[in-house]
């Protein structure tokens, strides 16, 4: 199991890379990643090509629902962000869940 600090570093890079992609130019969305084995949710915002306000909060019903939601384990998150695991195969096998509105899914599918 990875630590919360390792996951935060990995997520900041992952979300930052997404935000910097020209295909997502002008996107302003909330994003969250539920890390199941740590029982934490990391929340932030994709705004104008940057990731802003990434912070961890305990998972629970009080956590606001983000526009783009990822659910995975800490180990799978680290493997995804290091390139050892492709997003497509992780999603197809259920190791990662991605939830978003249809418009956001269409924009994200080419990037992931």
UniProtKB/TrEMBL annotation:
Domain SCP2: 20-103
InterPro entries xref list: SCP2_sterol-bd_dom (IPR003033), SCP2_sterol-bd_dom_sf (IPR036527)
Pfam families: SCP2
Domain of life: Bacteria
Name of this chain's protein: SCP2 sterol-binding domain-containing protein
Species assigned in the record: Klenkia sesuvii
């Amino acid at each position: 199991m990875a630590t919360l600090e390792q996951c935060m570093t990995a997520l900041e890079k992952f979300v930052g890379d997404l935000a910097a992609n020209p295909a997502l130019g002008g996107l302003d969305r909330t994003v969250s990643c539920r890390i199941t084995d740590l029982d934490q949710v990391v929340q932030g915002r994709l705004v104008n090509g940057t990731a802003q306000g990434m912070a961890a909060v305990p998972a629970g019903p009080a956590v606001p629902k983000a526009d783009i939601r990822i659910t995975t384990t800490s180990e799978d998150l680290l493997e995804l962000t290091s390139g050892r695991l492709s997003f497509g195969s992780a999603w197809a096998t259920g190791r990662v869940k991605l939830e978003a509105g249809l418009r956001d899914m269409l924009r994200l599918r080419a990037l992931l």
